[in-house]
Design goal:
Layout: H1 6-10, H2 23-34, H3 38-51, E1 56-62, E2 68-73, H4 113-120, E3 122-128, E4 135-141, E5 144-145, E6 150-152, E7 157-163, H5 170-178, H6 183-196, E8 201-206, E9 214-216, H7 222-230, H8 232-235, E10 238-244, E11 254-260, E12 270-275, E13 278-279, H9 283-294, E14 304-310, E15 316-317, E16 328-329, H10 332-350, H11 363-384, H12 444-455, H13 459-467, E17 469-473, E18 478-483, E19 486-491, H14 492-506, E20 512-521, H15 522-531, H16 541-564, H17 566-573, E21 576-577, E22 582-588, H18 600-609, H19 616-631, E23 661-662, E24 665-666, H20 675-703, E25 716-721, H21 722-731
Parallel strand pairs: 1-8, 12-14
Antiparallel strand pairs: 1-2, 2-7, 3-4, 3-7, 4-5, 4-6, 8-9, 10-11, 11-14, 12-13, 15-16, 17-18, 18-19, 19-25, 20-22, 21-22, 23-24
Helix pairs in contact: 2-4, 3-6, 6-7, 9-10, 12-19, 14-19, 14-20, 15-16, 15-18, 16-18, 18-19
Length: 732
C-alpha cells in the first residue's frame, strides 16, 4: 500500500524544468552538425565558389584543415552592403521563399555554412566585386563582424580563410587530431569536383608546399579531366555509358558517365555521383552497382564509376541531410533498376577480352617470413615433445622460390634482363568461369578424350610434377628438376607438347584468341612449309619439276580443306580463317605465352595433312595434337650461339675446313660475326629459357597430368639420388 504520509510524498522528485537554451549554445550545436570535420568546411566553401560562377578555385590546407583552410575563387564576389549579415544564420542569396526549394539549382540554399564556421573557428573574408577599385577584408566570430570592413588590395572574387577550426570543441578536436589526417578526404572532394566541372580550374595543396596535389585545367573532354586527376591507367579501362527514360510518363531522367570494364583492378570502389550538378551519395545505387560488378570482377577488385544524373528539380528533394550529402529522388527504385540494367548490359557486351596482372614475389621477404614462422613453430613444438633429428642424407633445399640452388645462379657473366621480370607468371585461371559458355564444350567426343587423359596419367610422375623444384637447363632439350632427394632430367619438348595438348582439350570451345598483326594467306604458309620439305633437296631438275607439280596439287587440296573446315576450327579452337583464305587469329593455349611463329607454316601444313576430318573424335584429337606440337617449346630454329655454336654466325665460313677455328678461339676479328643475327639468336634462346622456368613449369604444376608412357619413353630420367650418393661418400 502507498504511504499517504507527507514523508512519502516528499520522496517523489519534481519534474525537471524546461529552459530555453541560449542562442550561442544553439548555434554551436547546429554548427557541429553542419561542419562535422574539416573536409565538410572545404566542401561548403567550394560549392559557394561554384555558385558564384568561379572559373578558378584554389584550396590551401594546413594540419589537415584544423589550423587553416583557405579557399580562393574568381567569382562575382560579395557586395559591400551584404558583408554585415554575411555570416549570420539563414542569410542567403539563393532563395527567398520555401517554394523556391522546388526549383533550386544552386548547391547552397540554407545560409548555415559560413555562420556555422564562425561558431567553431575564426573566419576572415576578403572580397571584391567587378568595377570596384579595391576590395574589403573583414573578420567574423559567432556570426557577427568583429570589426568594420577594411579596404585592401584584392583580386577578382572572394577568399575565405578559416583558422583554428573546433578551437572551442575540445572533444571533437582531440578526436580529429588522434585520427588520420583529414587532408586525403579534402583531396578526394576536390578531385570529384574537378572531374564533373570540366570548365573550372581546381588546385589543392598543403600550406607551404610548392606542388599542388590536385591541379586540373579546364578542358572540353570528361576523359581528359579524369586522366588529369586519376591517371591514364584509369582512363584506359573506362567505357562511356548513357541512359535515359524520357518516354516514361511519371519520371524523366538522363544519366551519362563512365564506368570501368572488367580489366580495371582497384582495392576500393571509386564512385563519383552528381545529381543535378550536386555532389551526393546514394547508398542504394552504390550497392546495386557493386552487385552487378561482383559477377564480373574478382572478389578483391572494385570498380570506378562516374555518373551525372539530370532530373527535373521538382523530382529531387535536396533538404533531407544537414550537410546536403544525400538527396531523395522521386521513383528512386525504378531509376536505380534502369541504371543497374544498363551497366549490366554494357559489361556483358564488353567482356570479350580480359587482362590479368601478375605480381612479383619478394623472395627475400618471403624467406624471412617463413624462417620466423619456423622458429615460432619449433619453439612451440619443443615445449611439448622432443624434436626429431632429420638425417643428413635427407637435408636438401626444397623451396622453389629460393634462387640460390638454381644453375644460372652460378653462371657469372650470363645475367639477363629477363631475370628482372616477374618471378611469378603462373596461370591464374585453373577453372575459368564464363558468363556465356558455348554448347560445344558438351560434345561427347571431347569428354571421351578428357576421360582418356584422366585415366591414363601416372600417379608417381604427377607427384613429381606438382612438387618439383626447377633447377635449370641441362642442354637444349632437357631440364633438371629436384623432387625430394632425387634429381631428374625432363624432356622439355615432350612435356610441353603434352601440356599444350591437354590444355587444347580443356579449353575446347572457350579459347581466348590472339590477333595476328597482319593476315597470313594460307597458300603462302603452305608453300613455305612445302619448300622446306626434304623432298625438294638433293634431286635433279626433272625430279624437282615432278615434285613441284605434286606439291602444287597438295597445296590446292590443303587450302580447300582448311577453308571448308574454317567454321568448325574457329568455333572449337579459335583458329580463324576468313573467306579469302587468310589466317587471322590463333588460340591462346597458355596464358602469358606466345608460340614460335617460325613454326606457323609447319602447323598449317599439319592441319591440312594430318587431321582426320571425317571422324569427330579423331578430328578433335589430331587438331589438339597439332596445336600441342606447334605450341611446344621446341629449340629455336637459329642454332644456339653459346659455346662452340658461335662459329655458325661467322660471315666468312670458307676457312672452317682449314682448321682456323679451334675451340672457343676465333682467329678473325669480331667484325667477322653477323652481330645482328647473333643478337637475334641470343634473345630467342634467352626467351625460351625464361619461358621454361617462369611459364612452363608453373603451368605444369597446375595443369599437367603426365601419361604413363612418359615413365618409359625417356621423358623423365632419374640421374641422382641423395641417399645413394651419401652411401658412396660414406665409403670414401
Amino acid at each position: 500500500m502507498d504511504d499517504p504520509s507527507p514523508r512519502g510524498r516528499e520522496c517523489i522528485a519534481d519534474p525537471p524544468r524546461i529552459r530555453r537554451l541560449e542562442e550561442s549554445v544553439v548555434n554551436r550545436i547546429a554548427a557541429g552538425e553542419v561542419i562535422q570535420r574539416p573536409s565538410s568546411a572545404v566542401k561548403e566553401l567550394v560549392e559557394n565558389s561554384l555558385d558564384a560562377g568561379a572559373s578558378t578555385v584554389s584550396v590551401t590546407v594546413k594540419d589537415g584543415g584544423l589550423k587553416l583552410i583557405q579557399v580562393s575563387d574568381d567569382g562575382h564576389g560579395i557586395r559591400f552592403e551584404d558583408l554585415p549579415i554575411l555570416c549570420e544564420r539563414h542569410t542567403t542569396s539563393k532563395l527567398s521563399a520555401y517554394e523556391d526549394l522546388q526549383t533550386i539549382t544552386s548547391m547552397g540554399f540554407r545560409g548555415e555554412a559560413l555562420a556555422s564556421m564562425t561558431y567553431v573557428g575564426h573566419v576572415a573574408v576578403t572580397t571584391i566585386t567587378e568595377g570596384q577599385l579595391h576590395g574589403y577584408r573583414v573578420s567574423y566570430r559567432d556570426g557577427v563582424m568583429e570589426n568594420e570592413p577594411k579596404p585592401c588590395a584584392a583580386v577578382k572574387g572572394t577568399q575565405v580563410a578559416v583558422e583554428n577550426l573546433f578551437y572551442n570543441m575540445l572533444a571533437r578536436r582531440k578526436t580529429l587530431q588522434n585520427s588520420n589526417d583529414d587532408y586525403p578526404k579534402i583531396v578526394d572532394f576536390i578531385s570529384r569536383f574537378a572531374v564533373h566541372h570540366i570548365n573550372v580550374n581546381f588546385s589543392c595543396r598543403k600550406h607551404g608546399a610548392n606542388r599542388a596535389d590536385v591541379h586540373s585545367a579546364s578542358t572540353s573532354s570528361r576523359l581528359d579531366a579524369i586522366r588529369n586527376v586519376y591517371g591514364a591507367s584509369v582512363v584506359r579501362d573506362l567505357m562511356e555509358i548513357e541512359v535515359s527514360d524520357e518516354n516514361a510518363a511519371d519520371a524523366i531522367f538522363k544519366m551519362d558517365g563512365y564506368i570501368s570494364n572488367a580489366n580495371y583492378v582497384a582495392k576500393k570502389i571509386t564512385m563519383i555521383l552528381f545529381i543535378n550538378d550536386r555532389l551526393v551519395d546514394c547508398t542504394a545505387l552504390k550497392r546495386a552497382i557493386e552487385f552487378v560488378y561482383s559477377a564480373t570482377l574478382p572478389q578483391a577488385s572494385k570498380p570506378f564509376i562516374y555518373m551525372s544524373i539530370k532530373l527535373p528539380s521538382e523530382h529531387v528533394d535536396v533538404n533531407i541531410h544537414p550537410t546536403k550529402k544525400e538527396v531523395s529522388l522521386l521513383n528512386q527504385e525504378r531509376i536505380i533498376e534502369t541504371i543497374k540494367n544498363a551497366i549490366e548490359e554494357k559489361l556483358m557486351n564488353s567482356n570479350t577480352t580480359r587482362i590479368f596482372q601478375t605480381q612479383a614475389v619478394n623472395s627475400s621477404g618471403l624467406a624471412q617470413a617463413i624462417t620466423e614462422k619456423d622458429k615460432v613453430t619449433d619453439a612451440s613444438m619443443g615445449a611439448g615433445m622432443k624434436s626429431q633429428k632429420i638425417p643428413v642424407s635427407q637435408m636438401v633445399r626444397t623451396d622453389p622460390r629460393n634462387p640460390s640452388g638454381r644453375l644460372h645462379t652460378y653462371w657469372h657473366g650470363q645475367s639477363s634482363n629477363l631475370e628482372k621480370k616477374s618471378d611469378l607468371v603462373s596461370v591464374r585461371n585453373v577453372v575459368r568461369s564464363r558468363r556465356n559458355p558455348k554448347d560445344s564444350g558438351d560434345l561427347s567426343s571431347r569428354h571421351e578424350l578428357l576421360a582418356e587423359t584422366e585415366s591414363s596419367f601416372h600417379p608417381g610422375l604427377l607427384d613429381i610434377v606438382k612438387n618439383c623444384t626447377y633447377v635449370g637447363l641441362a642442354d637444349e632439350v632437357f631440364a633438371l628438376i629436384q623432387h625430394n632427394t632425387r634429381l631428374y632430367l625432363v624432356n622439355v619438348v615432350n612435356v610441353s607438347k603434352e601440356l599444350m595438348y591437354q590444355q587444347a582439350l580443356c579449353r575446347f570451345g572457350n579459347f581466348n584468341a590472339m590477333q595476328l598483326s597482319e593476315p597470313a594467306p594460307l597458300r603462302e604458309l603452305l608453300m613455305m612449309a612445302l619448300k622446306d620439305d626434304e623432298l625438294m633437296t638433293n634431286e635433279n631438275d626433272d625430279q624437282k619439276l615432278e615434285i613441284a607439280e605434286i606439291l602444287f596439287i597438295c597445296l590446292q587440296v590443303n587450302t580447300e580443306i582448311l577453308k571448308e573446315n574454317a567454321e568448325m576450327i574457329n568455333e572449337y579452337f579459335s583458329i580463324h580463317v576468313d573467306q579469302e583464305g587468310n589466317l587471322i587469329r590463333l588460340p591462346v593455349v597458355l596464358d602469358q605465352y606466345t608460340p614460335d611463329m617460325d613454326r606457323l607454316p609447319e602447323f598449317v601444313l599439319t592441319l591440312g595433312n594430318d587431321v582426320t576430318w571425317d571422324d569427330e573424335k579423331e578430328c578433335f584429337r589430331t587438331v589438339a595434337a597439332a596445336i600441342g606440337n606447334f605450341y611446344a617449346l621446341h629449340p629455336p630454329i637459329l642454332p644456339n650461339p653459346s659455346g662452340n655454336g658461335i662459329h655458325l654466325y661467322k660471315k666468312n665460313k670458307d676457312h672452317m675446313a682449314d682448321g682456323e677455328y679451334v675451340g672457343n678461339d676465333l682467329t678473325s676479328d669480331e667484325n667477322d660475326v653477323d652481330q645482328e643475327l647473333l643478337a637475334e639468336a641470343e634473345a630467342a634462346w634467352a626467351q625460351r629459357e625464361w619461358t621454361i622456368q617462369h611459364v612452363l613449369f608453373p603451368s605444369m604444376r597446375l595443369f599437367l597430368k603426365p601419361p604413363k608412357s612418359m615413365a618409359t619413353d625417356g621423358t623423365f630420367v632419374q640421374v641422382a639420388s641423395l641417399e645413394k650418393l651419401y652411401r658412396i661418400f660414406e665409403r670414401c
